[in-house]
Design goal:
The protein has 4 helices and 6 strands, in the order H-H-E-E-E-E-H-E-E-H. A 6-stranded antiparallel beta sheet has the order 1-2-3-4-6-5. The chain is globular and about 35 Å long. The N and C termini lie far apart (31 Å).
């Protein structure tokens, strides 16, 4: 089991499917990224941290760094955000295409 899979297994059973789906989704976008736990969260690492995600009581936290939150601020208006974080409500479908774009943005940024 990878460190990220181990993290997911410690989460409430009702959250493991969406966290697993998010994990595999990011994995397909950046298969070359190292997977680890950083700051207590699942992390994809490629020339530095790309993105983190985590489970919270009422949302899935997605942490793509402040630069990505700023770059995608117009697409993020319906989500609660802070300097480097996005909160995806657990009662809504994850915005898969937006997540893909953000991960690719971060990959490009880290490889530059």
């Amino acid at each position: 089991m990878t460190p990220i899979e181990e993290y997911i297994q410690t989460m409430p059973a009702e959250r493991t499917p969406i966290l697993t789906e998010l994990y595999h989704f990011i994995q397909t976008i950046v298969p070359e990224a190292e997977e680890k736990i950083s700051y207590g969260m699942p992390t994809f690492y490629l020339n530095g941290n790309l993105v983190h995600f985590s489970n919270a009581k009422n949302h899935i936290g997605f942490y793509p760094t402040p630069s990505a939150v700023t770059a995608f601020q117009e697409q993020l208006t319906k989500y609660k955000t802070s300097k480097g974080a996005i909160q995806f409500p657990v009662n809504q479908e994850l915005p898969w295409e937006l997540i893909r774009q953000i991960v690719l943005f971060r990959k490009k940024e880290n490889l530059a």
